Amino acid sequence: MDKKIIFLVLIFASIFTMSGCGQKQPQIKVPKGDANNLTIATRYHQNNQNVELLHDFLENSMVQKAGIYTNFNNEQKKSDKATGHDMLSESSGLWLEYLAQTHQNKAFREFYQHTKKYFDQGRQFSYRIDDKTKKKSDVNATIDDLRIIRALQIYAQNTNSEKYRREAAKRFAMLQTTSIHKDRVLDFYDVRTKKTSNKSSLAYYDLATLKYFESVSKKERDYYQKQLKLVKQGYLGDIFPLYAPNYNWKTNQYGTENLNTSEALITVLHLAEIGKMKTETANWLEMQVDNKKLYNSYTTAGAIADHSQSTGNYALAAMIFARSGNYKYYQKAMKLVWEDQVQNKKSEIYGALGDTKNNDAYSFNNLLALLASQS
Prior knowledge:
three-stranded antiparallel β-sheet, single chain
C-alpha cells in the first residue's frame, strides 16, 4: 500500500477514535465541595432484627454477581416490564446506595465493578438485563444512572477517595453526552439508534445529585435552576399536592396520564432532600399513612386509579419523613413496612417483604425498605 494512503488511513482512524463514534468527549469536572445532603443524616431507625432479616434475605437469595433478581419468584410473566430473574440497574443502584450508606466498603467496590462489567454501555448503564437471553437493553433509565453516581459520591466522601470522586464525576460527565442535555434530564438514550426520549419524568430529576455535580460552573448552576423550576412548576395544586408525571419537550406540556405513586413519591423525596417539599404535600402524605390508604396509582385530579398498595411506597414515605425531620411519621410509615415482613422461618422468602402464597418478593420494595431502614 502507498505510504501516503497508509498515512491518511491512520489519520482518519485517529479522528474517528477521538470523536467517540460521533459523540463529543466529556469534560470531567470534579466538584470541590462536599455532598452531605446525598447522605441520610437522621438516626431514626429502630427494629434492628427486622433489618438484619431483610438484609440476609437480599444478600443470600437476591443479590448475584451480575446484579439483583427483580423477583424471587422466577415465573416469567408475559409483560414488557422486568420480571422473575431479569436484572435492573435500578436494583443495583439501590443496593450500591445501601452499601455506601452503611460503610460496607469492600462489598461496595466489588459490586460496583460487577455492575460496570454487566450493565455498562460505555457512557451509561443499560436499564435491564434479560434473564433468558442475557442481553442488555439498548436504553438506560437516567434515574438509575444518577442513583449509581450518587452512590459513588457517597462512597468517595465516606472513604475520602479521590479515585471514586473522579469516577462519579466522570460518569456524570458521560451522562451529559447521552440523556442529560443542558437543563433537560431525559428519560433515556438509545445506544443503537442514537436517539433520546422526548420526555422527562419528573421523578428522574434527582435534584440533590444534579445540584452537586452541576455546581462546577455558572452555566451548569443555571441548568440546575431551570431543572428545579421545571419540577416545581409540575405541581398539581393544593387539593392533590403531588406533581405531574412528566414533561413532554415536543408539546411543551406536562403529562396528564395517571401517576405511578412510586415515581410520584420519588419526585417528592428529591424535593425533600433539598428542603423544597411543600407543607401541603407533607400533610397529604401524613393523612395517607394515618389511614393506611397510600394507593398505587392516582389520576392527576387525585382520584384513585389503582386500589392496590405497595410496601415500597410506605418505605418511600418513611424516607420523605426522615428527610424532613418528621420522626413520628417516619416511625408510623416504617411500622407499616415491617407488617409485610415474612416471619415464617419455613418460608423460602423468610425475612423478605413479600407474598408467601406465590413467593413474590420484588427487589424494588425490599431494597427501598432496606434503604429506608437506615434513616
